[in-house]
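testing teh design pipeline on a random one, pls ignore if ur not involved
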């Protein structure tokens, strides 16, 4: 999941509904943002980071109620313990990330030296591998704890992913854009079908969240999962 991925950027910074396939990342970003601002004119730019809670009153009330006794705190505590626990060689995550745990806004980014997208989970596993530790499994398990802690410490930061004028970076970006628009699965749906064209609508009992803001929405606890998730 977090290996040498195309540049999806959490949620790819392109809508692709009215933008040309040849549009630049900057063009796509403008189209992407303007689409959601017109679709949800009463939602401030800052509020989009709250996902579905920004567009649905009932969901927001449930969210605010659950914040009185946050069910995600055990995951954050476990992640903090992981961050502070030394590796077998005496080093720790602090040696890999000297700026501290509030680093979520720096990912994903283009790593020119490696010629690939560097995600935070990948950076965490690179750190573990470099220090002789066993890498964490992606998606489930302990990876969620360390990501929860980092995400919590990074609250309020602005995620600003930059696409450099680099042929490999632009190629990765285009692959991410294609992935966002590609139809797949039994229902022949693309990411954009749900989180762009149908954003705010219902799919059974769930409200489809707008993609704008997803990069700040995760790492997240959802009651239907019962755990933290990527």
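output:
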């Amino acid at each position: 999941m977090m290996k040498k991925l195309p540049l999806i950027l959490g949620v790819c910074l392109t809508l692709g509904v009215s933008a040309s396939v040849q549009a630049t990342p900057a063009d796509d970003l403008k189209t992407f943002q303007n689409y959601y601002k017109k679709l949800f004119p009463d939602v401030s730019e800052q509020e989009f980071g709250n996902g579905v809670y920004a567009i649905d009153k009932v969901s927001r009330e449930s969210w605010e109620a659950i914040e009185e006794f946050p069910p995600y705190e055990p995951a954050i505590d476990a992640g903090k313990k992981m961050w502070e626990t030394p590796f077998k060689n005496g080093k720790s995550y602090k040696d890999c990330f000297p700026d501290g745990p509030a680093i979520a806004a720096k990912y994903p980014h283009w790593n020119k030296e490696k010629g690939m997208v560097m995600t935070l989970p990948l950076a965490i596993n690179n750190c573990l591998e470099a220090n002789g530790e066993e890498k964490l499994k992606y998606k489930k398990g302990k990876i969620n704890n360390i990501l929860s802690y980092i995400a919590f410490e990074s609250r309020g930061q602005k995620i600003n992913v930059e696409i450099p004028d680099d042929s490999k970076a632009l190629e990765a970006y285009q692959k991410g854009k294609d992935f966002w628009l590609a139809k797949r699965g039994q229902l022949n749906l693309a990411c954009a079908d749900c989180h762009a064209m149908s954003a705010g609508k219902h799919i059974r009992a769930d409200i489809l969240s707008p993609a704008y803001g997803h990069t700040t929405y995760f790492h997240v606890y959802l009651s239907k999962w019962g755990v933290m998730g990527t």
